[in-house]
Amino acid sequence: MSRVWRFVAVLAVVAPLALTGCAGDDKPRFGSAPSGAAPTSAPPVPFEFSVTPAADAKNLPISTEVGTLVKGGTVTSVALTETGGTKQLEGALRDDLSSWVPASPLKYSKSYTATVTATSAAGQAETKTTTFTTMAKSGSTTGTGLYLFDDREYGVAMPVVVEFHPGVKKEDRAAVQQRMFVKTDPPQPGAWHWVENGTQVFYRAPEFWQPGTTLSVRIAVGGHPTAKGRYGDMDRKATAKIGGKLVMEVDNATKQMSVFKDDQLIKTMPVSLGKQSTPSSSGTMIVMEKKEETVFDTFAELGPELGYRTDIQFAQRLTWGGEYIHAAPWSVADQGRRNVSHGCVNLATDNARWLFQQTKIGDPVTVKGTERKLQAGNGWTAWDLTWEEFVKGSALPVAADLGPQTAEPGATPTAAAG
Prior knowledge:
Number of helices: 4
Strand content: 35-45%
Structural class: mainly beta
Oligomer: single chain
């Protein structure tokens, strides 16, 4: 069940720093005025204050934010109400104070009144009001998905995974990305990365999440433009926990899987990987799905001669293309010696059962030394890139120091969302 998303505005107050000279020092210091001359200082910034949308604007998206442009002062309050109503909507200022974001989408075909107060550096308060009307509901939508669920525990490599159908074009991604908010507790920086066709976007940190981290996510694209004439289908939210660290490494040279818990080797197991005609992918993958029992049916894909239908135990999906870790009692004699699978990581049943009991969705699996490289977007491939490569997939600039950019409005800055 979704939790109610509440925002609390956080306004930063910065105190000017003063330089003090040593007593009795007659020499000018740091460009100070000569003795007897009147000291100089920068003129105060003139107080300027404006709000958006423009008065009486019509047909606006239900994702509309209240713009709050202030120079020489700061925003001190924002109130948004449905015109004719008295209840103020919940929401919060972005960290850069550029706008106020409602905590949930507005209603279609409704009029709203925003009242914004700003105060100058000299203490002068000014209030501005604007009224606008939202658009009627569009029949053209972009389907969305969020692979994160409330109160679930995930592995340390779990990215925030968002899907769009159809994919978002490059020219539309920056505006969509500005509406995707991530908060981490304890604070850890991070960034977004779009796959080439725009159907998936991943959020991750430079390193694996710290065990015990809480991820709070809002994909606020309900009614938000995703293309010309097309809008997001709904807002999606989730708050989840990162569990203990478990990492799997598979080496084709030795045909062995090594399992590490909290960076300590706890088990090594023989495996059989994909044969030469159907090699396993080399790269860092993530456990995306777990099924204690399932059926692999490849007749539709491979045809009546090459296809097969097999009952499978302890299956853990690694790619959209059908690569799994799973029990394969038929290949035990080959495990640790040769590759005979159709691309999966084969384990003996007892080993597959043991591993299944250890793992979580979001645990990383690195396979190395095979004939095929993991294809970007074939699964949750966020960790199959260096950090420098990953941030190149952002539609917004990513600060070199990973400072906050579009963190959850009103939250203490914790993660860049570039």
